[in-house]
């Protein structure tokens, strides 16, 4: 199981490598929003921005759920088994969590105290 | 206004994650400290196995001199060729960076081919006449396509007159789709041929048949495309469960098939193929019961009919033929003392290795990786993924004057695409046992997950394999 996780990490790494410039740019932007939010936002502001952050994550997850089959030349009728649905739902959830983590500092900083 | 600095909880969470990250990083194989050696290791072949081994050995050894011998400066992503030929991928998706992009620093790359192996003298000789002496040798020469075994065959003619093969490279795969796309609009007779020899990626001819069928159905013209699959073997795939399943699917999808029919000649201009019946222990095996009736000009034996006598020739007219060439070891290995001298692998000149340790059975300082190995199964990228860490580990032990102690079970895998959007995940060992590595996956079931693996995930995994990380 650990080997499969390691292989998964390597797959994601190799998929992102051609877009390294974009990943770095987004990471820097995220770092900046994190620093700004930590300096200026009280704890209550972080909590208050959670609902909107969750909404962003939910939208990202929903779009992933719909578009992954389309982008892979497939359709929902091609999902037969438990593993197929778990893979698609798991991928959508993972993207949703990434989007939430990525947007939480920025949304916190933008939210008025 | 109060600030919210990074709290202790955050720091503690990060510290807790660090051991997990370390565990994952070492999950691929047991951690092995670098071994100091002055040994000269020669790797012959700069394909998947050769590049992977060069990276693994460069990381596992300190002070060693590693020489890679191959004239090819770029090799493409071959597992993707059926996806190109089947009209799913554009050809650019199988093109890879130059080999130099994947090799470790400080490797000595000799851009030539090996013409001769002299394992008694621990020497290889290149076509350019260079004699290179080694302490340890890794043979990674892959397979040789023997197009000349088919009388009348002309590789340069692929992509025209209905003649196709995804085994001839990226462009030939793209031309395969171009011709298939035309055929599915006009209709016609589509023939596939599979040789008697072991082949690279044994599932690819079946994948092509499935994709040809599916693409014709998508175009609404399947009733005008008559398909027949000729194999020189007695099965459609060596694994018994999959063999039965493929026969069932071929029957359901009106893909006729004939066993023990070897493509021995082709008239490209006339679009006519000659098949010769192959004996199996004194008698040809009859066509499988339930095989659909053949179209005119495609003489599949109907169910229950006696098989054609061995040596009997049949000519078949076609509009489109997908040719899988007979394959063998490279002539330089075949003609050397490294090849099997007797037994089932001798005819192909395959490398004589111990099937578990992948060490040569007579020359202990020689190892084999990939398609060149004379082992019961496994001419696939997945086999290299499974065996490369074992070969590297065992070779490093031999360098330290120790015996190999890791064993390979013959793992081979193929996402067998059944149609666009669906695949089966075939994973087997040397004995043909199904050994699924992912829980909840029924190997025989159509799977979107297996399809996504083939369509999106395996090429990045392949690059990680080249780099020796998985």
CATH class assignment of the largest domain in chain B: Alpha Beta
Instruction: Output the strand order for the largest sheet of chain B.
Output: 5-4-2-9-20
Per DSSP E runs of 2 or more residues, the count of β-strands of chain A stands at 0
For the largest interface, the chains and their residue counts are: A-B, 37 and 36 residues
- The termini of chain A sit apart by 45 Å
Number of domains of chain B: 2
Major sheet of chain B: 5 strands, parallel
How would you characterize this protein structure?
The complex is a heterodimer of chains A (113) and B (470). Chain A has one domain (33-113). The longest helix of chain A has 29 residues, at 82-110. Chain A has helices at residues 2-16, 20-40, 43-48, 50-71, 82-110. In chain A, 82% of the residues lie in helices and 0% in strands. Chain B folds into two domains: 35-71 and 111-142 and 330-410, 3-Layer(bba) Sandwich (FAD/NAD(P)-binding domain); 147-326, FAD/NAD(P)-binding domain. Helix content of chain B is 26%, strand content 21%. Chain B has nine helices and 22 strands. Chain B has helices at 8-25, 48-60, 81-85, 170-186, 204-218, 240-252, 331-334, 381-399, 448-466, and strands at residues 35-36, 40-44, 61-62, 65-69, 108-110, 114-118, 123-126, 131-133, 136-139, 143-145, 163-164, 188-194, 225-231, 255-258, 261-267, 272-277, 313-317, 320-323, 327-329, 366-368, 412-419, 422-428. In chain B, the strands form seven sheets. Chain B has a five-stranded parallel β-sheet, covered by helices on one side. In chain B, helix 2 runs parallel beside helix 8. The radius of gyration of chain B is 24 Å and the shape is globular. The termini of chain B are far apart. The interface between A and B is large, with 37 and 36 residues.
């Amino acid at each position: 199981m650990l080997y499969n996780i390691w292989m998964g990490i390597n797959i994601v790494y190799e998929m992102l490598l051609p877009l390294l410039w974009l990943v770095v740019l987004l990471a820097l932007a995220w770092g900046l929003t994190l620093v700004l939010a930590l300096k200026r936002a009280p704890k209550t502001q972080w909590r208050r921005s959670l609902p909107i952050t969750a909404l962003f994550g939910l939208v990202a997850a929903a779009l992933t759920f719909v578009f992954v089959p389309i982008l892979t030349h497939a359709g929902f009728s091609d999902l037969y088994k438990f593993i197929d649905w778990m893979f698609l739902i798991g991928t959508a959830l993972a993207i949703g969590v990434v989007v939430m983590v990525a947007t939480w500092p920025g949304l916190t900083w933008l939210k008025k105290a | 206004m109060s600030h919210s600095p990074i709290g202790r909880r955050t720091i503690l969470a990060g510290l807790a994650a660090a051991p997990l990250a370390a565990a994952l990083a070492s999950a691929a194989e047991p951690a092995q400290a670098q071994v100091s050696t002055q040994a000269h290791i020669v790797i012959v072949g700069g394909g998947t196995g050769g590049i992977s081994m060069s990276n693994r050995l460069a990381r596992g050894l300190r002070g060693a001199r590693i020489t890679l011998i191959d004239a090819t400066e770029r090799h493409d992503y071959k597992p993707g060729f059926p996806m190109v030929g089947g009209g799913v991928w554009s050809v650019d998706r199988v093109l890879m960076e130059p080999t130099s992009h994947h090799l470790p620093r400080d490797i000595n790359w000799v851009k030539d081919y090996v013409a001769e192996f002299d394992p008694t003298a621990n020497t290889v000789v290149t076509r350019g006449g260079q004699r290179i002496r080694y302490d340890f040798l890794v043979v990674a020469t892959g397979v040789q396509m023997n197009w000349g075994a088919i009388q009348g065959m002309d590789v340069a003619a692929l992509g025209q007159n209905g003649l196709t093969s995804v085994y001839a490279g990226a462009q030939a795969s793209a031309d395969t789709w171009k011709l298939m796309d035309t055929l599915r609009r006009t209709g016609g007779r589509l023939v596939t041929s599979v040789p008697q020899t072991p082949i690279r990626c044994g599932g690819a001819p079946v994948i092509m048949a499935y994709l040809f069928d599916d693409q014709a159905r998508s175009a609404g013209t399947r009733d005008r495309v008559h398909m027949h699959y000729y194999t020189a073997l007695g099965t459609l795939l060596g694994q018994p469960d999959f063999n039965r399943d493929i026969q069932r699917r071929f029957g359901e999808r009106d893909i006729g098939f004939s066993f023990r029919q070897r493509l021995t000649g082709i008239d490209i201009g006339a679009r006519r193929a000659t098949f010769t019946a192959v004996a199996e222990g004194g008698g040809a095996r009859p066509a499988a019961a339930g095989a659909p009736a053949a179209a005119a000009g495609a003489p599949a034996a109907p169910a229950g009919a006696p098989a054609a006598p061995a040596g009997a020739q049949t000519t078949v007219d076609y509009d489109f033929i997908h040719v899988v060439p007979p394959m063998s070891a490279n002539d330089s290995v075949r003609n050397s003392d490294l090849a099997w001298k007797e037994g089932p692998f001798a005819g192909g000149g395959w490398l004589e290795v111990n099937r578990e340790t992948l060490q040569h059975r007579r020359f202990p300082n020689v190892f084999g990786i990939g398609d060149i190995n004379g082992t019961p199964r496994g001419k696939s990228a997945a086999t290299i993924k499974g065996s490369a860490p074992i070969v590297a580990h065992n070779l490093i032990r031999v360098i330290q004057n120790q015996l190999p102690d890791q064993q390979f079970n013959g793992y081979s895998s193929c996402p067998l695409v059944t149609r666009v959007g669906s695949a089966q995940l075939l994973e087997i060992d040397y004995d043909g046992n199904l050994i699924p590595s992912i829980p909840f996956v029924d190997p025989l079931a159509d799977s979107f997950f297996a399809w996504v693996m083939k369509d999106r995930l395996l090429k990045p995994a392949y690059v990680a394999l080249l780099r020796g990380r998985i």
